[in-house]
Amino acid sequence: MATEIFDIDSMPRGGPEASWLDRRLQTDRLEYLDRDDVDHLKRRVVRSLDREGRIFGTHKKFARVALDEVADVPDPKILELGSGHGRLSRVLLEMHPTAHVTVTDIEPTSVAAIAAGNLGRHPRAVVREMDATAIDAPDGYYDLAVFALSLHHLPPPLAARLFAEGTRVADKLLIIDMPRPPPLLHILKLALMLPLEKVVPVVHDGFIASLGCYSPSALRALARYADPAITLELRGGVFKTQIVLASRLRSRQ
Predict the structure, then answer these.
(1) Is 253 among the domain residues?
(2) Is 130 helix (H, G, I), strand (E, B) or coil?
(3) pLDDT at site 75
(4) Cβ(78)–Cβ(142) under 8 Å?
């Protein structure tokens, strides 16, 4: 992995040049999803996220974004990293009749639940336990790797590893996450969430997730640190889902 002139371990979520205020809008607190001592709360958050995705159509929206990136590939091989409840992979398979999807998560309980459901029996799906920062696959094996609503869980060193590994095993790495608002707007957002943060598990995790989201400048810094050859295309905005498309030139034999 290449190195940048900044200290990756201490890089703020707002990027190397983040303002004084932005640097204070982050936390070391863990979401329920990242803890091993609150399994009942973790399951409630997973169910809530799945339900919200179905009600508001975000699973289908994210699937369309992903499939647009492999529109010219007849039988695309797609790797979903950090799949959680696995709903995005289900929608990908429903929307593309010849796609093959490898569904992965680092959490054994989530992987077991996915494998026990329809995805575990789907002829075009493979369910595996896998770390998104140490992907067990050959270089260039997949046409697309997808990491949705999960990058904010990773501290900068691991986020950089995700960029390196995702672009190693796939022609394209698609990262979808919440945007990081400007500091004053971010404070307002957090203030609106605060009354429910202690009593509603999914709001608790959303509050911490907002503090963990990376800014566009941070994303560029992470990619440069991972490999200066990685190119980024950033889409979205303050009020829109943040979409990152990463790739690097790959020599073909």
Answers:
(1) no
(2) coil
(3) 97
(4) yes
